[in-house]
Design brief:
about 240 residues, mainly alpha, Arc Repressor Mutant, subunit A, Four Helix Bundle (Hemerythrin (Met), subunit A), 2 domains, 3-stranded antiparallel beta sheet, about 65% helix, about 5% strand
């Protein structure tokens, strides 16, 4: 599909330059495009026109081309065989499965460490996020689903205080943000889907397992939750480019 309606504006460049007058224009364009892709202002499979983007931003084509190539190198845009130009990246089932496999390993271990160390004995923030997640699923109120979900998982990762786990998780952050926002958009349109009900109490189950001080239980609860998420995502997230 072609990019049609204007997505960008000159104001975005002006705001970014006011915040950091020394930033290179190509880096600003990169950040603007990245944000638009992550937050679904540019739909997966959309063909990107460097000329159109440059025109909307009120700049020359050179920094746009540089930004698009950098995004291609990092996997957020692609080039399709037999077609010219760049296209917005789309989730593949293999990417989803690989991501959840890595998350099970990292988050399972982080939950194990948190239970072993008693990481949240004096902190109720994790419980609060778990309760918000439970309410969001049960009440089918998915407006802040992505923020609540991401915050919960990151809190456990950081509480592990293991720099290698944290660094590995950071490397997956962009993909996870993209997936989480895409899930939220899907869920808002599927409020009556009862397949979501198993998710409701799983964050609370992880929290309770960590608070029990039984590392093995915390690890298995975290992995079980991610297994549920993976199964649902395979069902929900057929790549959009396969549908068009």
């Amino acid at each position: 599909m072609e990019q049609q309606n204007p997505v960008f504006s000159k104001i975005q460049i002006e705001v970014a330059q006011s915040r950091n007058p020394f930033a290179q224009l190509s880096d600003i364009v990169y950040s603007v495009l990245e944000d638009a892709i992550i937050h679904f202002e540019l739909y997966p499979g959309t063909k990107l026109s460097a000329v159109q983007i440059a025109d909307e931003l009120g700049i020359s084509r050179t920094p746009v081309t540089y930004a698009l190539e950098k995004l291609r190198q990092e996997g957020l845009v692609t080039k399709q065989e037999g077609h010219r130009g760049y296209y917005v990246w789309d989730i593949s089932l293999r990417s989803l499965e690989n991501n959840f496999m890595a998350r099970r390993a990292l988050e399972g271990t982080a939950a194990y460490i948190c239970a072993q160390r008693g990481a949240f004995r004096r902190d109720t923030a994790l419980k609060g996020l778990a309760e918000q997640f439970d309410s969001a699923v049960r009440e089918k109120n998915f407006k802040d689903f992505s923020k609540i979900d991401t915050s919960f998982h990151w809190m456990i990762i950081r509480a592990s205080e293991n720099p290698y786990i944290i660094k590995a998780y950071q490397q997956m952050e962009r993909f996870m943000n993209y997936y989480s926002i895409r899930s939220q958009i899907y869920l808002i349109g599927k409020e009556n889907d009862y397949a979501l009900e198993p998710l409701a109490n799983q964050h609370l189950a992880i929290y309770n397992a960590i608070m029990s001080g039984i590392p093995e239980l915390a690890e298995s609860s975290a992995k079980a939750h991610l297994e549920t998420c993976c199964n649902l995502s395979v069902r929900f997230h057929t790549p959009i480019t396969e549908k068009t």
